[in-house]
Amino acid sequence: MRKLLVTSVIVLMCMSLPLAAFDGFTDIFGEPELPEQTTQQATQQTSFTVDGSVGFSIEGTRGEDEPFKGRVDIGGGLDIDLSWRGSMVDARTSFSLHPSNDTEFRWYDVFTGLSLTAYYEGGFVEAGLLKKEWGSGDGVHVVDVLNAPDYRNGFVDDAFAMKVAEPMVGSTTRWDDTTLEVFYKPMLIPMMAAEDAEDQWSMYPPGMGAIEPPTYEDLARLGNWQGAARLKSIVGPADVGLIYFNGFHTQPGYDLVSDPLSISIVFTRAQLFGAESTIVVGPFTIMLEGGFWLSEDRDGTDPTRYNSKWVYLGGIGYLFPDIGAYASVTYNGHYILDFQKGDLSDISNPNNADVDYVQATRSSGGAPYMNTLTAAFELPLARERVSVRLAGTYQLETGGYAFLPSITWSVTDDFIFKASGRLFGTMGRSEESIFKSWAKNDSLKMGISYLF
Amino acid sequence: MKSFTRHILIVIVLLFSVPTLLSATVTGNSVMQQVMDTQAAKSSAMDLRLTLIDASGTSRERRLQTLTMTEAGLTNTITVFLSPASVRNTRFLTRQRADGTDDQWIYLPAVGRVKRIAASEGGGSFMGSDFTYSDMASTTYDTDEADHTLLRNETLQGRDTYVIESIPSVASDYGKTIIWVDTETYLPMRVEFYDKSSSAVIKELITDDFSYTEGRWITRSITMTTKASGHSTQIEILQAKYDIPMNSGYFTTTFLETGRVL
User: Fold this and answer.
1) Are A318 and B114 in contact (CB under 8 A)?
2) A232 half-sphere exposure, CB direction, 13 A CA radius
3) How far does the CA of residue B260 sit from the closest CA of chain A (Å)?
4) Angle at A333 between CA A439 and CA A187, to 5 degrees
5) Closest C-alpha among A118, A65, A57, A141 to residue A314
6) A-chain residues within 8 Å CB-CB of B125?
7) Do A383 and B52 touch (CB under 8 A)?
8) Which helix H or strand E contains A15, and what residues bound it?
9) What gap in Å lies between CA B62 and CA A307, rounded to an integer?
10) Which of A106, A213, A294, B154 qualifies as a FRET site for A51, CA 20 to 30 Å off?
C-alpha cells in the first residue's frame, strides 16, 4: 500500500511539473507537424512517442563440409521503443519480440531496455536496464565495461546489439565541457554465450559438453556489486576520458576437478584503470583506448581466476569528404601478466588448466598476448538510398578472421531491405580458435523491415 | 534659425545625393557585402523541410531544425533531424574554434552515444540532397572568399537584379558561380554553379519564394537542381527567427545527448 502511495505521489508530482518535451526545438518553433510520425501529444508540453520496426528475415547457414545440408533460419519480429518525456523525468522502455522455435523465452531478450531518468540543474540520474558504450573506438573497445557482451548469435555488424542491458543506477554531472558519470551495478551479469559446447556459436572447445550456467541466486548476491566512473572532458581538438571500474570480468572462469570430473564456474573480481581519447585532425579521427586490469589474483597464482593484464587500442578513421564514405582501421589487444602455459591433456594438476591459458587457447593460440586488426568501410550510394558496409576482423595470433559485409537499400524512407553475410575461418597457421569453430557458420541473410 | 536651415539643407542634399553616390560605387564586392549584411544575424533558428525529387518526380521528405548562435565572433550550430524515422532525433553539434576550424559531434539515438567526428565539410551530399555541406553553410561566397565582378544588371522574373560573377579564392567545389542578386532585397534569386574548369553549369539554384518578416527579407523556398541527373532538392523554411535570445546551453554535448538544457 505504501509503495502504491509513493508511486502515485511521484506520478502526480511529475504530471504537475511544467512540462516541455523535446521533439525538436519546441520552445522556439512549437510542436512540429510531421507526416507519418506516431507521436501523440498528451499535452502541449509532454510527449509520448512510439518508435520501432517490424521485420522478417531468412538466414541460410552453410554448415560444415555439407554445403547443401546447411540450415535455414526464419527470423525477424517486432522492436518497439516507448518514450515518455516530461520536463524533469524521462521514461523509456524497449521491447524486442523475436519468436523462435529453438530458443527459450528469456526476459532479458524481451526487455532490451528500461530506464527512468530524472534531470536536475547540471545533470541527471538514471536507473533501469541500461546499455552504455564507453570508449572511443568504432564498435571495438577495450574499456567498455558497463555491459556484458552477448555472443549467443556470434558476431553481428551491430556492436550495440551485442550488449546485454543490465540493471544499474547512474548519475551524470556536467560542468563546462566536463562530464562525470558514476554507475552502480547491484549484481553480476556474465557474458552470454552458447551454453552447449555443440551449439553452432559455442565458444568452448569441441567435446567439452554442456556447462551449467550460474543461477540468478549466484549472480544477485550483495557482494557482487560493481561500480564504475568516467570523467570525460573536451580538450582542444580531443575528447579525453579517464575510467575506473571495480567489478568482474564478465567471462567466467572454471574450477576444474579431474576425479571425478566436475566443473564449477567462478568469476574474477578486478579493477580497471583506463583512459580513452578521440582526436580529430582534418578528415582523420584518431581513437585511443588503454588501461590496466588489476585482478584480485594479483600474483597470478590462482588458476581459477584471470590474471592482471594490460589492454590497448589504437585506431584511425578517415572521412572521404566528397563522397561521404568512412573507413577505419583499429588495432587492439591485451597482454596477460604472470601467464603460465598449461597442459590441457592433464588437468589433474589445476595449474595445467589455468583460466588464462584455457582462454588463450581459444583466442590467441595459447599466447599471453592477443592482437586483433579490425577494419570497417561504409559507402553511401544513390543519394543515401543504398549503403554498403564492409567490416572485417583478423586475429593475428591464430590467423582467425570474421568478415561481415552488408548492403542496405531504402526502398522508401521507412521500408528497408538488407542483405548481409557472415564469413568465419582461419588463414595460415589455422590455430585452434573460435573463428575455426565458427567456420561452419558462414551465412547469408536477407530481410526487410518497416520503420515506424 | 539660420543654423537649423543649414542642417535641413544638408539633409536634403544628402537625401538626393546618396542614391547617386551609391549607384556610382556599386561593385561586385559591394553587392556581395550587402548580401552578407542582409543575412547576418547574431542568432537564428530555422525549421526546414527538404524535399528530394528525382528525375521521375518521386519525392522524399526530410525535416530538420537548426539553431545558430555567434558569440565573440565564433559560430555554433546545432541541428536535429526530425524525419525520416531512420534518422529521427539524430543531432549534430558544430562549434567553431578560434583558429577557424570546427569541432563536430554527433548523437546517435539508437546507441545513446555522443561521438566526436570529423567535420563533414566539402562536396559531400547533405542527406542525399543536391546541396553539399558547403552549400548548406552558404550558397554564396563572402567578400574575402572570392573575387566578385558585377557583370550587368538584368531583369529576372520581373525583378531587377545585379548579375555577379564570383571566382573563389579559397578551396571550393566550383570553378565559379554566377549570382542574380535582387536589387531591392539583396537576396540571391538565382545561382549557377560551374564545374572546376568554369566551362559548364553543373547545378542551378532558384529562389522560389521570399518574404519580408520581422524586419528583414528572408528566403522562404529555394530549389537546387543537378543538371546531369535532373535530380532536385527543395528547401522550404517553415519558420525562421533571427536575433532571438538563445540559451548557450543548446550548443553543448549535454544538450546533444539529452535534448535538454540542464
Assistant:
1) no
2) 21
3) 7
4) 90
5) A141
6) 324, 383-384
7) yes
8) helix A2-16
9) 52
10) A106
Residue B69 has a pLDDT of 96
Is the Cβ pair A319, B84 closer than 8 Å? no
Partner-chain residue, chosen from A24, A320, A380, that has the shortest CB–CB distance to B80: A24
Q: Please, what's the b/e burial string for A309-331 (b: 16 or more CB within 10 A of its CB; e: otherwise)? A: bebbbbbbbbbebeebbbbbebb
From A37, A320, A324, residue closest to B83, measured CB to CB: A37
Q: Does A92 touch chain B (CB under 8 A)?
A: no
Q: Is A142 exposed, middle or buried (0-12, 13-18, 19+ CB in 10 A)?
A: buried
Helix (H) or strand (E) holding A17: none
Domain boundaries, chain A: 2-40+74-384
A27 touches chain B (CB under 8 A): no
Q: Helix H segments across A97-139?
A: 107-110
Total structural domains within chain B: 1
- Counting one residue from chain A and one from chain B, the pairs whose CB atoms sit within 8 A come to 129
Q: Read off the pLDDT of residues B61-84 as tens digits, 9 standing for 90 and up.
A: 999 999 999 998 899 999 999 999
> Residue A20 has what pLDDT?
34
Report the pLDDT value the prediction gives residue A259, as an integer from 0 to 100: 66
Find chain A residues with C-beta within 8 A of B56's C-beta.
Answer: none
**C-beta atoms of A321 and B122 within 8 A:** yes
User: A247 and A296 in contact (C-beta within 8 Å)?
Assistant: no
Identify which of A365, A441, A358, A359 has the alpha carbon closest to the alpha carbon of residue A396: A365
Contacts of A284 in chain B (CB under 8 A): 118
The domain of B22 spans: 8-258
Q: Report CA Rg, chain B.
A: 21
CATH number at residue B89: 2.50.20.10
Looking at residues A421-432, what average pLDDT do you find? 83
Grid cell 537542381 is found at: B225
Provide the sign of the torsion angle of the four alpha carbons A197, A198, A203, A207, taken in this order: positive
**Exposure string (b/e) for B100-132, b if CB count within 10 Å is 16 or more?**
eebbbbbbebebbbbbbbbbbbbebbbbbbbbb
A317: contact with B, CB 8 A cutoff: yes
Per-residue pLDDT band for A101 (boundaries 50, 70, 90) equals: low
The answer, yes or no, to whether residue B7 has pLDDT greater than 80, is: no
d(CA A368, CA A359): 10
* C-alpha atoms less than 13 angstroms from C-alpha of B58 in its C-beta half-sphere: 5
| DSSP secondary structure of B3-67 | HHHHHHHHHHHHHHHHHHHHHHT--HHHHHHHHHHHH--SEEEEEEEEEEE-TTS-EEEEEEEEE
In a domain, B1, yes or no: no
Q: Say if CB B231 and CB B57 are below 8 A apart.
A: no
The answer to the question of residue B85 being in a domain is: yes
CATH code, residues A2-40+74-384:
2.40.160
Q: Looking at chain B, which residue has its C-alpha nearest residue A161? A: B111
CA torsion sign for A180, A46, A81, B114 is negative
- Residue A342 to residue A362: CA distance in whole angstroms: 13
Question: What is the reported pTM?
Answer: 0.86
**If we measure between CA atoms, which residue out of A74, A26, A78 comes closest to residue A53?**
A78
